[in-house]
Fold:
Amino acid sequence: MKRLAFPAFLLAAIVACIMFQPAQAQAETVYVIANINVADTSLTQTEIQNIYLGKKDKWNDNQKINFTALSGGPCHETFLKQHVGRSDFQFQNYWKKQIFTGQGQPPKSFASDAELIDYVSRTSGAIGYSCTQPDTGKVKTLTIN
Amino acid sequence: MKHSIKTLLISAMAVFLLMPAGAGGMTLEDLQIHGFISQGFLYSTDDVNFLADDSHEGTFEFNEMAINFSARPTDDLSVGLQLAAFDMGDIGNDEVMVDWAFGDYSFRDYLGLRAGIMKIPFGLYNDVRKIDMVRTSILLPNSVYPEWFRESFARMKGVGLYGTLPGNLSYQAIYGHVDIAADGGLADGMETLNGGALGMMNTDSTDTDYAYAGKIQWDSPFGLKLGASLYALHGLKMDMNSTTYLPATPPLPVGLPLATNLALDFEPIESYVLSAEYMTDRLTLMAEYVENDMEFTADITTNLDPVVSAAWGVPTRLGDKTTTQGYYGGASYRVLDQMEIGAYYSELYYDKSDHDGDEYAAKFGVAKHNAWLKDTCLSARYDFSANWCAKVEAHLMDGGFMASGADAKNWELYAAKLTYSF
Structure:
């Protein structure tokens, strides 16, 4: 009887795979923004990925990068998928690994675009993103190559 | 001292468990505080014990917890400390230890310096072994991450360099000292290995000279990660003893007490692992290959005259030289936003040139199948929230390497775990 437990477990896993189809994230335009005093005007795809994975923490003029993120939502998911190559769950997992091995701290997160943009506009070296057209008088929009 | 730290840790965890906390943890000004606590359950079939002495009856001696504090005093400098405890059968026993504590100075993206107690980078998952919530499976593949020996690979006290080079090639290198616990998994394994010839052993003390580890990893833009890691431990010594009674022989009415001392001296233990991981939106594929070179000699002395010891068949020297080999391949898939399933197949051999176990059986006087462990694992994980996750897992096992009382060649292992993190 106990030999049936493993096949039953396998069967349940297969059924779960077939039954549940993941929902697709909606595509949105994401603007990558930075504080006005950041000298850089563009980033490569690898650079922005490395910023959000904590591997790049300095701008090209050696100024400290303060990276920010939204705490969730379609814009956050689109940004992660397009620029970090991860889902929200994978991104959270990555930062839990970094936190519990002492190798870094996750981005400061905000509940809304407005709060994030306000913080980036007030914080030297800050970078973030938004799905609403940013006010270029407050922050600068970076080009992603 | 250990108990006062333990009380503090448990109290802190209890406070955080009762407080509503976001996944990002708490921020008190510039101080970051994070923690987790995991409680697991293990059950093995066919009277086989794995990781715990009574796993065949089901055991809760399978838990982990940690709390860390970190701060960034300047733009380039960060400091942090993590206290942790775990229990896994006879090892760990929830004694609080400093899991890591180091200062980190980042000069440039391509060069940073760390000093203190650091996690050892080895393979994809060695530095996150005890962090249950960052993977799908409960147990990592034992071929590359043997649970009994994880504290031997866990942390190093010394200095390290790290950085990311052009081409997205990142590296870590550390040099220093590794403490091997006399009541830890490695000592436990050596006691079992030598106990066949000398009876039940107990480790009195251990010592090491120095150690180093390095890892390079390439992260591609399309989700592929390739890595290579090396770890070497030099000057490991262990001192073990056992006390038994020789059989009574006329004219003596009782057997003589036989106190045996075993002084183990290891050649440098060298391990390397090659790693690959491919990640898409919901699917992760992973595979790794490892080899560990190990050679030791053990000088044996007893409380009896050497001539008497020899007459009773007590050897004067034991030893072995082997290259253990392990590899696995696995996959995990995020079925729902809250649910993930995974599977892996793993093979581990005590000696890479003795896959069928013939030499192992002749050398240690045990069944051939104790020379390997082949593991087919299926896992399921459910995230109730960003803070809580639960897992269940089933293993179909072939072989008895690292399993005690493993007379059965084919057996099963079931595990469950509940984790809270903040």
Summary: Chain B has one domain: 2-421. Chain B touches chain A through 58 residues (CB under 8 Å). Residues 2-18 of chain B form the longest helix (17 residues). Residues 15-24 of chain B have pLDDT under 50 and may be disordered.
